[in-house]
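Researcher: Sequence recovery benchmark, item below. Answer with residues only.
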């Protein structure tokens, strides 16, 4: 039994407690998790005994290559998804609460003798814990990010625009083997660094400013995520002091986080350091989020997450301080959570770099 069939078996174990006879999946990431392929324009229908991939002629060869663990149902003009569902014996079908389009749900509602039960977290709970293949792909994606940062430290100079910097980051990741971007690259400077998700534009990067770069790439479907803040030219003492507070918070979290803590406890390891330094109200986002097929997935490091962090979850560790109209600092690594601590997937320098 291959890893994808094993994942399906684990999923089936959740059917009874959720009161469903089958599960219909159409989230791209969740389809990818059970197929190893991009989930575009494909759906899965899983019962306790069978598993089907439902797609059209364009993906016929891909679908047939999965015959070891998935049967193939081809949709066409004369027979579509509704015909397939209608012909099945299962009466209570789970549907993904957060991903099913309303138009499709309304079509399902027209099918007689069927009930459709919104469910969430069934696949996501499995995805929280990464297997060795997933961890290797996350390592690969993260290494591309780290290597890109090392290159960019020799490229970044006053006078270029934020858009030029963002374009170079993206080019360098793809040059190193990335198949795509995890998210829109953040490359911002000066007072804009006080905006956690600022957007690069034609602003000129000037000497004496911070530059924050938050970016990631995709390798075989799996995402990376890292952030570094550097100074271009001589920073002020205030800038250095705030940077070192964020660094201290980030290092404390990296040193003390381990599997078995709650997300709330992990978050506090960085948040308390920043609060004690007097900047608690300027760290307004969570410490971290899971990363995998999605750039934001479970588990979470935040003040409300009381779930236990499992071993082999992969989570970002990204404290920050943001001072509106002045500057901001964020330092982010991506880490495998282990019983003994973490394995940091990002090997780029974290001490303040002055270019």
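Model:
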């Amino acid at each position: 039994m291959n890893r994808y069939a094993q994942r399906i078996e684990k999923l089936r174990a959740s059917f009874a407690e959720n009161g469903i006879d089958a599960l219909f999946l159409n989230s791209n990431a969740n389809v990818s998790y059970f197929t190893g392929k991009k989930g575009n324009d494909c759906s899965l229908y899983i019962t306790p005994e069978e598993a089907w991939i439902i797609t059209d002629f364009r993906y016929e060869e891909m679908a047939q290559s999965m015959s070891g663990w998935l049967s193939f149902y081809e949709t066409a003009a004369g027979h579509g998804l509704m015909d397939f569902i209608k012909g099945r014996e299962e009466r209570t079908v789970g549907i993904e609460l957060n991903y099913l389009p309303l138009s499709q749900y309304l079509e399902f509602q027209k099918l007689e003798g069927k009930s459709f039960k919104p469910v969430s977290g069934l696949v996501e709970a499995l995805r929280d814990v990464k297997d060795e293949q997933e961890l290797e792909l996350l390592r690969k994606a993260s290494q591309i990010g780290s290597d890109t940062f090392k290159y960019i430290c020799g490229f970044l100079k006053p006078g270029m625009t934020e858009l030029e910097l963002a374009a170079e980051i993206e080019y360098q990741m793809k040059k190193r083997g990335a198949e795509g971007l995890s998210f829109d690259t953040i490359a911002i400077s000066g007072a804009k660094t006080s905006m956690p998700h600022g957007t690069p534009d034609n602003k000129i990067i000037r000497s004496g400013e911070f530059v924050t770069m938050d970016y990631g790439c995709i390798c075989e479907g799996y995402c990376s995520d890292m952030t570094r803040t550097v100074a271009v030219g001589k920073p002020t003492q205030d800038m250095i002091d705030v940077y070192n507070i964020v660094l201290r918070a980030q290092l404390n979290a990296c040193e003390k986080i381990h599997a078995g803590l709650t997300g709330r406890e992990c978050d506090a390891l960085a948040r308390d350091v920043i609060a004690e330094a007097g900047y608690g109200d300027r760290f307004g986002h969570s410490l971290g989020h899971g990363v995998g097929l999605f750039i934001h997935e479970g588990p979470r490091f935040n003040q409300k997450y009381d779930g236990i962090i499992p071993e082999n979850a992969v989570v970002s560790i990204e404290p920050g301080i943001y001072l509106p109209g002045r500057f901001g600092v964020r330092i982010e690594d991506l880490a495998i959570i282990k019983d003994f601590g973490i394995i940091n997937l990002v090997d780029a320098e974290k001490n303040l770099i002055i270019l």
